[in-house]
Amino acid sequence: MAVILTLKNLTLNRDGKKILVGVNLEIGDGEIHSIIGSNGAGKSSLAYTLMGLQGYEPEEGSILFNGEDIAKLSITERAKKGITLAWQEPARFEGLKVRDYLAIGAGGNGNITEEEIRSALRKVDLKPEKYIDREVGEALSGGERKRIELASILTMKPKLAILDEPDSGIDVVSLKEIVSLIQALKENGASVLVITHRKEIAEASDRASLMCEGAVLRSGDPEEISHFFINRCIPCDNRLYLQED
Length: 245
Ligand SMILES: Nc1ncnc2c1ncn2[C@@H]1O[C@H](COP(=O)(O)OP(=O)(O)OP(=O)(O)O)[C@@H](O)[C@H]1O
Ligand SMILES: [Mg+2]
Known about the structure:
single chain, alpha/beta, Rossmann fold, 6-stranded mixed beta sheet, 4-stranded antiparallel beta sheet, 9 helices, 33% helix, 26% strand, globular, binds adenosine-5'-triphosphate, binds magnesium ion
């Protein structure tokens, strides 16, 4: 399989603290890849570094996207290349109507049809007629905002979608929908990097990686990685844990 993203020895410090300590990772084109790991392992920081957020400039290492090192590019330049990030806590809401919010994500009104907007809302289980004219703001519940954030990722038609805990704030019965949303992204041609604490999401991925203390400890079959994490990592008290079978 062609590789879309290669991370080589990526290191990140913040306020003098080592956050990423040499991340190596490869994501295949069209692959759904999950990242699992304990709280504080560096998963969100990795997502921000890939997206190019301010304050997340890597000290060392490279981020190869389709073979090109994008580590020095701005967030806007990366977005133009088709990289997008859905936040763990959805934050970028400006009082727009849902319709416009989803259209802007797609690069302006001309690039997306009304039916595509409605279809994206249906994919996240929001009735279009009920939500399309509502304002994206405080009046929506946390779960509704999160769903709209995820719908906006669909309408962006990204090449690489980074989803930071797409299941957070969403009830358990809706996990299946999150999985089908991730599959819809893949069907639309995206590669998906999904950060999750949910076994169900990890195991619906093509491959998974385990992060611990700012590094990727191992990558491979999702069930095997998830099993390793649950059975080997919790007793390690979040220290780098490299015991082999
Ligand atoms: N500005 C900062 N200064 C010092 N430490 C920081 C700073 N920003 C983040 N950290 C630390 O970096 C580590 C990684 O944080 P990150 O949010 O990436 O973890 P995570 O794996 O996403 O965790 P979770 O599962 O809880 O979302 C944490 O220990 C956090 O406290
Ligand atoms: Mg996080």
